Amino acid sequence: MPRGGSILVSDGPGESRAAILDDGGRLVALFLHRAHRAEAGSVHLGRVTGRLPDGSAAFVDIGEPDAAFLNAPDARVLGGLPAEGAAVVVQVRHAARRGKGARLTADVSFSTPLLAYGPLRPGVAASGKLAKDRAKALTALLRGLAEKGEGLVARTAAADAAPEALGADLARLRAEWTLIDKARATAGPVPRRLSPPPDLLAEALARWPEPDAIVFEGATVPAQARRRHPALSDIMEAARPDLFLREGADEQVEAALSPRVPLPCGGALVIEPTAALVAVDVDAGPAAPSAANAEAVAVLARQLEVRGLAGHVVVDFIPDRRDPRRRDLIALLKQALEDDPAAPYVAGVSPLGLVELSRRRAAPPLADLLCDADGRLSAETVALAALRRVLREAEALPGGAPVLEAAPQVIEALRGPLRAALAEAEARLYRPLTLRARDDLARDRVETVFS
Predict the structure, then answer these.
(1) How large is the C-alpha radius of gyration of the chain?
(2) I need a surface site. Which of 57, 233, 296, 413 has the fewest CB within 10 A?
(3) Exposed, middle or buried by CB within 10 Å (0-12, 13-18, 19+), for 372?
(4) Where are the beta strands (DSSP E) in 177-283?
(5) Are the C-beta atoms of 357 and 313 separated by less than 8 Å?
């Protein structure tokens, strides 16, 4: 079980971020929520806008630019796909990706590090990773706690949990569902969001359960964080602004968007995602093939998770006469991927000598979250970073009138889909933020002026 290192949490205008850093300060994973997007785990009251002729799926409007997709198996708790025009409560399973609408389910569920809770699908179970006797005991306990129609699953972290802790988590999860049900019954527009995505810290803790420190950017630790994770309260601390910048997380995220990754031996990995697969080439540079390949294995295992790459991955390692069939290399690769939560499968070596593996897709790739299809930072990414920069610089110039100058696309994003983020930034500044579009600025460049 991963332990040590730290989790950094930053809640900026329009965007929340959490980063896991290991003991060496290396980025393990980045978690990102943007307020204007339907993120995975968020719950919505949507409107069915159409169905496929064969009845295998329905299109649902949840307020996103592209219609979301509800497959028939994901609507079983409703007794089948709802009719066109019907209002339906759905949860986002997979957020929208470039031109593809979000994937939905009507089988709404919530979780804590200890419990998974499904209010619409009855049944009690325990994680398959638990010891049999402990799983049996937890299952018996949950049967006594479950109400009619509820589904409960004891997660791996519940192995040493006290009954009181499980009961407290269950009470919180029930309360969350009650609020959603009340919001659904309240008159209002359709579509609308009923519940935000899961706690960002909880997502990070699911990947990294035992950090040495949880650091929040801001003057104090949020009370909500202490309330939701009381057992970790002692390792929570607050830090001044620039947390991600100061701890090197921003720099490492930027590096993870580059196709070239330097190796300590002087060589490099070149990682090129395509529509069909992820192609990886190993360049030895001045090093011996065996040394470069060994370093490439360790770096590749980390980069796959940091970049959120999934699907079919093909790696062209350097031919090595000492290991012509690459058996040693395959063994090293399997070992390096053991802790990856996406459960990679190493298929072996193709007839052409390429190492093939697959990795389960759990979230959109980092590049999809931050960049446009051309690989450049999107106008939204630049705009949100610009708002954080204005707030940071305003700390040193509390009396100045802030002006943000940026490319027209960035200004348009702030006046359009990110207008709520702009309003949030102005509320934190206690004064308006003037926007100026400049045609001479590249999209990834912004300038701030305090007059």
Answers:
(1) 24
(2) 233
(3) middle
(4) 192-195, 213-217, 236-239, 260-262, 268-273, 278-283
(5) yes
The CATH classification number of 6-36+199-251 equals 3.30.420.40
Distance CA 83, CA 50 (A): 8
**pLDDT tens for the 451 residues of the chain, in order:** 567 899 999 999 999 999 999 999 999 999 999 988 888 899 999 999 999 999 999 999 999 888 999 999 999 999 999 999 999 999 999 888 777 889 999 999 998 888 999 999 899 999 998 999 999 999 999 999 999 999 999 998 899 889 999 999 999 999 999 999 999 998 889 999 999 888 889 889 888 989 999 999 988 889 889 988 888 999 999 998 889 999 999 999 999 999 999 999 999 999 999 989 999 999 998 988 888 999 999 999 999 999 999 999 999 999 887 777 788 889 999 999 998 888 899 999 988 889 999 999 877 899 989 998 888 999 999 999 999 999 989 988 877 899 999 999 999 999 999 999 999 999 999 999 999 999 999 999 999 999 8
For the domain covering 258-359, report its CATH number. Answer: 3.40.630
Beta-sheet strand order (sheet of 345-349):
260-262, 268-273, 278-283, 311-316, 355-359, 345-349
CATH topology of domain 372-450: Hypothetical Protein Ychn; Chain: A, (3.40.1260)
Backbone angles phi, psi at 92, to 5 degrees: -75, 120
- Report the alpha-carbon distance of residue 6 to residue 294 in Å, rounded: 27
404 contacts 434 by C-beta, under 8 angstroms: yes
CA 23/CA 261 separation, integer angstroms: 21
Whether the full predicted model's pTM is greater than 0.70, yes or no, is: yes
- Name the CA dihedral angle for 415, 397, 429, 439, rounded to a multiple of 10 degrees: 0
Query: Where do runs of H (alpha helix) occur along 229-364?
Result: 243-246, 249-255, 289-307, 327-336
Answer whether the bond into residue 122 is a cis peptide, omega within 30°: no
CA gap 282, 347 in Å, rounded: 19
**Distance between CA 252 and CA 263 in Å, rounded?**
15
Domain boundaries in the chain? 6-36+199-251, 43-105, 110-195, 258-359, 372-450
